[in-house]
Inverse folding.
């Protein structure tokens, strides 16, 4: 027995050593470049094939082949990838979605190229570089790990590496050659990938699809090591390898037997599921730009009728052509699922193959009467029930997606895809299933016609989802999750809905695929297919149903008409190009031609400048927008009643110069504060704009008007005194008014550090309350607690008499607490009008004229895209979106950031008018002059505590004098 244990341990160490090498390679590449290299497994298989080519086919000596592959080809491949694919992405900001798409593109490209060059069948004669005896392999792993440790800890290069990892731009400013660091990281990562492939190939099947996946399952090891700790990666890899090996000894009877066998054979997949779904997310938890997924390739005119005719053509086919054609609508449905979840909702869904496979398996089992607990069903009923059963399983990816973004979400959905493939689809009960076609549809033509009908139905459903209110909400979610929540979009529910609908569509497609081919083949739905489909839909323009039709025709056509691997190689190549040139082929050609002329090298500095200029909005539009703002006069007229707290603009003694850090205004304001501008309709006050009479249904669904809903709200200056606030500990503020929004005793800790310590503020109707303080004082943290984006560790937040401490951000918005962002947030894929419409729709404001009035009031251009508008205009768009939901409370985090003096004056007048109309405002602001001009009450935050509160005239001079 002891010797069996020993033997199994040795076998496990051998597997673990290869996994450890993968882990080390992934960690080093990630540390050097910030990229989780999905192509690692594909590089491994490419190198393994190449060594076989040299040694077995061309009869080279093993040492020569190995030296050339591992010390020549692999690092050269890594360098080429860094130089040609990932460096331009890193320079342009390392958008994780684009980087991920590019690395999946490289994966698909290399896998396709391997299939093209060496065929899709498995090779059994890969040369053995190091014997199966684990000691040699372990020695290699230890040597590699120690070398990496020594280089990163003891050399200057290691210091540079750490600097680049911490902050690439900062490191570059500090003189570090980030490109060199990344190049070394890529070369080394590719070397370890090659070594892994060469070590594994003789002991597992060397085939273009299986081996890369095997290597990618091992990503769990790197995730468990938090993409950081080499020793953890090596330890986990060896432990899982040994445990997997030892599990083969157990042979329990009954139901546990197949389960244990499956787990024993796939312990790295279990580890992947745990690492991706249970451990804290890697790659940062923040919402990420999904620029790569929202790409729309505009359909040329007449594309839909042409597509319709092309899809009808196969009805005239016969024989094998028609048999091939039946796969197209089925695959189009699967790709359509990605249009919904990735294209429109912006979620990186790498596991759609799993849902297609489940749909196929369930439908086939049901139609054969082999589904546990259910009788045999006729084909159509089996199809419907399979879709209904799989749809809720969309929660498998939807639930992780609620908290995970970007890379972490990609890993989670990939893990689910791999898990379902290994534990459900590739099981003995699923082997050799041959479902009958539904009665009356045995003929390929009839079946194809049914598929077309179902595809049309699905296209109509997707069209409905992408249009109108739901379409705008999904686009907002895709563009900026926090912004969407702030506009009132129920982010979590919408994600769940998108994933569930996508699972249903994929299941329908998968079921049709199996019925069409009259067989269930788990390999048709393996995770590599999932990656290929994902890359294909992103390449063709994820947010467009036409892409699904085109993609399906392309993939099926290439698979049927060309050598195996051509489809994957084509999609991979396109994905790499799209990763680099997301703006499309024109941009690609332009950039390449500029480079060919030797003038277009994108430098760190050049790009940074462009990014900066882009943000402040240069060019004719930006300048004209700023001029409009200056010349157009204030957004609203003078307050109808006097200012409630009777302050006028501050004296010069109160504030430091406002122009610090702000664009200088070339034109004088030339107008007294609060006066109406020439372009503003004289009768249009902010509240009048928001609450202008509308149809009887105008406020349907709205909880209540301020006075009915919130004590004190809407009473404005001189309103009836409301009842006292219910807050347990009275917050600072003048007595006699009930706060619309209040917090008390707020405590927030980050990692044990107290950032807010018993803070309380009241935000009252018709008043501007300000919070000032030094950088890091805790202002934004307090703001997040009030807006609902952060739950305090202790304390209470109340809205009127309602405790909202645990109420989600979007729900607070719907109650009437609107906010803007310090880094302004607009939804770039929506027009200006639609940006505002999202706010109105989510606030259940059904007055059709409200958006138009807001557009007029804030003088923002409807129909325009947001990309080329100036910061000032974008701030007004953001404000308009916040106001569109008719909020009772408006929270503004540094609203003047990036504005010039004229724009600040404009904003000041608008905010004053809003307050005069009864809105409760809370401002976090460094600009003391603005605070003095606007606020009735000022709270000074220092080190997480409120150290002074009162009217600005009392509080601010002390601050200004510091
Ligand atoms: N998510 C977080 N994790 C850990 N620490 C955080 C986090 N968010 C904020 N902090 C820390 O909490 C403190 C308060 O941050 P906060 O952003 O609230 O300050 P602030 O007053 O808004 O500063 P600024 O004016 O620069 O925006 C800072 O020291 C910051 O580093």
């Amino acid at each position: 027995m002891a010797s069996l244990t020993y033997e199994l341990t040795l076998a496990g160490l051998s597997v673990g050593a290869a996994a450890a090498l993968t882990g080390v390679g992934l960690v080093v590449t990630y540390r050097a470049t910030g990229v989780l290299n999905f192509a690692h497994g594909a590089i491994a298989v490419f190198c393994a094939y190449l060594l076989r080519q040299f040694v077995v086919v061309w009869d080279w000596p093993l040492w020569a082949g190995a030296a050339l592959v591992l010390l020549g080809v692999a690092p050269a491949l890594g360098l080429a990838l860094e130089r040609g694919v990932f460096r331009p992405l890193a320079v342009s900001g390392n958008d994780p979605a684009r980087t991920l798409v590019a690395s999946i593109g490289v994966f698909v490209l290399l896998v396709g190229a391997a299939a093209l060059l060496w065929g899709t069948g498995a090779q059994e004669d890969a040369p053995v570089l190091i014997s199966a005896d684990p000691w040699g392999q372990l020695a290699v792993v230890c040597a590699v790990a120690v070398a990496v440790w020594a280089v990163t800890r003891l050399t200057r290069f290691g210091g540079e590496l750490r600097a680049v990892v911490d902050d690439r731009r900062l490191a570059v400013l500090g003189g570090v050659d980030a490109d060199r660091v990344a190049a070394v990281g890529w070369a080394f990562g590719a070397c370890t990938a090659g070594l892994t492939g060469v070590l594994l190939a003789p002991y597992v099947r060397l085939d273009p699809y299986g081996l890369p996946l095997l290597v990618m399952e091992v990503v769990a090891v790197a995730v468990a090591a938090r993409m950081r700790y080499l020793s953890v990666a090596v330890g986990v890899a060896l432990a899982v390898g040994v445990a997997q090996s030892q599990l083969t000894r157990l042979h329990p009877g009954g139901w546990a037997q197949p389960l244990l066998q499956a787990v024993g054979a796939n312990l790295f997949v279990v580890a992947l599921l745990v690492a991706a779904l249970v451990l804290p997310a890697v790659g940062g938890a923040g919402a990420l730009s999904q620029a790569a997924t929202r790409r729309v390739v505009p359909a040329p005119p007449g594309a839909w009728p042409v597509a319709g005719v092309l899809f009808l053509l196969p009805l005239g086919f016969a024989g094998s052509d028609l048999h091939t054609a039946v796969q197209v609508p089925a695959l189009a449905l699967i790709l359509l699922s990605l249009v919904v979840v990735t294209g429109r909702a912006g979620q990186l869904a790498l596991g759609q193959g799993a849902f297609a496979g489940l749909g196929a398996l369930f439908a086939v089992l049901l139609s054969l009467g082999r589904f546990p607990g259910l009788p045999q069903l006729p084909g159509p009923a089996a199809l419907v029930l399979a879709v209904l059963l799989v749809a809720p399983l969309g929660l498998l990816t939807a639930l992780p997606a609620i908290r995970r973004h970007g890379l972490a979400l990609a890993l989670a959905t990939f893990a689910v895809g791999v898990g379902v493939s290994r534990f459900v689809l590739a099981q003995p009960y699923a082997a050799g299933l041959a479902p009958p076609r539904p009665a009356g549809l045995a003929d390929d033509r009839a079946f194809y016609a049914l598929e077309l009908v179902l595809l049309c139905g699905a296209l109509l459903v997707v069209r409905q989802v992408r249009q109108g209110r739901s379409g705008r909400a999904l686009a907002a979610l895709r563009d900026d999750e926090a912004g969407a929540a702030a506009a009132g979009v129920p982010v979590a529910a919408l994600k769940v809905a998108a994933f569930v609908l996508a699972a249903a569509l994929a299941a329908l497609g998968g079921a049709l695929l199996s019925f069409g081919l009259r067989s269930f083949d788990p390999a048709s739905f393996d995770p590599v297919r999932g990656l290929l489909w994902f890359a294909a839909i992103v390449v063709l323009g994820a947010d467009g149903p036409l892409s699904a039709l085109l993609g399906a025709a392309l993939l099926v056509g290439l698979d049927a008409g060309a050598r195996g691997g051509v489809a994957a190689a084509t999609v991979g190549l396109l994905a790499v190009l799209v990763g680099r040139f997301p703006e499309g082929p024109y941009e690609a050609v332009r950039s390449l031609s500029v480079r060919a002329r030797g003038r277009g090298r994108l430098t760190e500095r050049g790009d940074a400048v462009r990014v900066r200029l882009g943000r402040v909005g240069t060019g004719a539009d930006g300048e004209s927008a700023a001029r409009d703002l200056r010349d157009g006069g204030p957004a609203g007229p003078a307050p109808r009643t006097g200012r409630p707290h009777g302050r006028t603009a501050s004296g010069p003694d109160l504030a430091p110069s406002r122009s610090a850090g702000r664009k200088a205004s070339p034109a004088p304001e030339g107008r007294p504060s609060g006066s109406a501008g020439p372009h503003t309709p004289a009768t249009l006050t902010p509240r009048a704009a928001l609450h202008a009479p509308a149809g009887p249904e105008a406020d349907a669904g709205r909880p209540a008007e301020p006075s009915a809903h919130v004590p004190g709200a809407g009473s404005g200056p001189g309103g009836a005194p409301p009842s006292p606030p219910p807050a347990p500990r009275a917050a600072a503020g003048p007595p006699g008014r009930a706060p619309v929004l209040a917090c008390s005793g707020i405590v927030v800790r980050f990692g044990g550090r107290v950032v807010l310590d018993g803070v309380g503020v009241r935000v009252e109707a018709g008043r501007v309350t300000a919070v000032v303080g030094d950088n890091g004082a805790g202002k934004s943290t307090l703001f997040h607690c009030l807006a609902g984006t952060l739950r305090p560790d202790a304390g209470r937040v109340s809205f009127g008499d309602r405790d909202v401490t645990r109420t989600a951000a979007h729900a607070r918005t719907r109650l009437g607490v609107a906010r803007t962002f310090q880094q302004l947030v607009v939804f770039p894929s929506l027009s200006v009008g639609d940006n505002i419409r999202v706010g109105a729709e989510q606030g259940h404001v059904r007055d059709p004229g409200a958006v138009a009035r807001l557009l007029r009031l804030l003088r923002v251009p409807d129909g325009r895209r947001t990309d080329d508008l100036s910061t000032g205009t974008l701030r007004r768009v953001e404000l308009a979106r916040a106001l569109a939901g008719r909020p009772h409370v408006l929270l503004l985090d540094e609203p003047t950031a990036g504005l010039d003096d004229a724009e600040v004056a404009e904003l000041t007048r608008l905010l004053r008018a809003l307050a005069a109309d009864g809105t409760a405002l809370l401002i976090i602001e460094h600009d003391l002059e603005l605070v003095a001009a606007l606020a009735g009450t000022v709270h000074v935050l220092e080190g997480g505590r409120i150290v002074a509160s009162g009217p600005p005239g009392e509080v601010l001079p002390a601050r200004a004098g510091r």
Notes: The mean pLDDT is 79. The longest strand covers residues 739-750. The two ends are 78 Å apart (CA to CA).
